[in-house]
Design a protein that fits this description.
Elements lengths: L1 H31 L8 H16 L1 H14 L12 H19 L3 H14 L4 H15 L1
């Protein structure tokens, strides 16, 4: 259910960014350029590209949609729905990620932290450790 809600939010966000871009393009033409020729072609082309990047790419998943999951969608989920074995499995992935992190294998650590989060979406330590590992990959 959570994945469906997340997908629908992505679609709505895509449409919102698309319309916003086209609106800015029309505003640019009419108000700034004083030309009533419709949407500026730069905005017409760029709006769908920007909307796609902000909605459906890996970048969006790691930034925007992870934040939405943690701060918005988790408010509506039951945090006590994990079984003991699921919680232990998530902790196991966290420990494996920590081991990979200590050994400097940050990409592998991110994979383990992500597995822990997939099991327990409220696992704040896994989110924090994954962000630290991602920062080490970038630098």
């Amino acid at each position: 259910m959570k994945k469906l809600i997340r997908f629908l939010l992505k679609v709505v966000f895509f449409i919102f960014v698309l319309i916003l871009g086209w609106g800015i393009g029309s505003f640019w033409n009419v108000v700034i350029l004083e030309y009533d020729g419709g949407v500026n072609s730069i905005f017409l082309i760029a709006s769908p590209i920007v909307a796609f990047i902000l909605s459906f790419t890996q970048f969006a998943n790691e930034t925007i949609w992870d934040w939405v999951d943690r701060n918005i969608l988790n408010m509506f989920s039951n945090s006590n729905s994990l079984t003991t074995s699921e919680r232990n499995e998530a902790i196991g992935y966290l420990k494996q990620g920590n081991t990979e992190y200590k050994n400097g294998r940050f990409k592998e650590a991110v994979k383990y932290y992500t597995k822990a989060i997939e099991i327990d979406s409220n696992f704040k330590e896994a989110y924090n450790n994954r962000n630290k590992a991602r920062n080490n990959i970038i630098h």
